Amino acid sequence: MTTNKALEVHNITKFKLHSNYGKDLSLLGEGAFSHVLIFQSIYDHSVRATFEMFDSGIRQEEKKTKSIEETESFNLTAGEKVELVIEDERKQKLEFIEGRVFTISEVKTSMTNTMKENFKIEMCLNDYIKNELEENFVVKRFDQKISATANEVLSTITERPVFVDSTVTELPIKGCTERPFDFVTTLCPKAQPEKFPTSAGYLLFDTYNGLNFRSIDVMFSQEPKRRMILNETPRLPPGYSNKILNVEFSNTMNVLDSLRYGALQNDKMRTLDPNYHTYAQNNHNSDSLYLGDNNLKDVKPVVGDHLQLPTKSSRVINQIRNTGVHPPGEDLDAQLPFAQEPTFDHDTIPQLAIKRYYQSRLYTVNIKLYGDFGIFPGDVVYCDFPEISAEQTSKKISKKKSGKYLVADVAHLICPEGCYTKLNMIRDSIVEEE
Fold this sequence. Notes:
This protein is mainly β. It has 8 helices and 24 strands.
């Protein structure tokens, strides 16, 4: 098999597997693998990587080629440490070493013939593994803002930074031997950001830079990190940072799903207070979640206007208030004054979060770029796309499709043909017609 010079010289500067049986194996210069894929997402609790390794029974040792019978075989199971350093053409590096090393999560093997064995290897970061250990289970009580609780829990299982958007929501809560990621995920739909206190909905995810407990609205309000363009020329116009190689648009809005989530309509929250035996109803209009600063475009989409759907109610949620459950306070004397009060706003927050989760991904775009390792999930980028036109000399920028997008998924592919980055991007609103 030929040497992967494109991988070795241009993009991968370190790629070493550490066997559980005490032996190391460097994959550089051996022609032992075809590609490496690094994946990060706002919907995933770990950075992941995958590659295929080929074992043809040949080993390099002191410039002498020996068959596998003459050397000790490299044992590969699961749980091995993998060090990987990659670099793009901008000299931006992703260094999965020390506190960021990968751990092999799964190995799938197949033998194509008697001369070669194929390993498909999937990897994750160590924090995702440590999340499964009993020593890190959440068992203590918290009486503070949700953002402080999330930061405290996540900081116990990672050596990397933890990025948290401050919340206004305070929630007395006690861990019941949950795994940290599971515990924090339950807090996501309960959290309201300080910057946009009339909205709700957080996401827990991992990137190369660290663990994130981020508000959807706060992420949408960021300034663009990159400005990109799709054009017909090989040159990148002034003012742009990236050239888009190809694009695929997807309108993921479904009228029935929209009605069932109440994302673009009205809905009702009915709550029962078990202490006072009272039943309350709270009506909510989705317009209140389109504040301008927390949206990536001008206005909320209109669905089924001829049926007056935007003014109708399409979802009813029933909840029981948690009156007397985990009242705030360190002891009984401090808790008693709050024993007949709910500790969480079941009347409003859940319906806000449900709507916001669905709204955030109404429109999706998938683009391909030359490798850019400085883009991460949770970043906002600005893209200019041309209007569809038969004219080849000049293209107008599409006001409808262009604008700010939130990066949801990032995939970096390093292969012999080159280094490429694919972005799945989302947004919640459209351009208002002039």
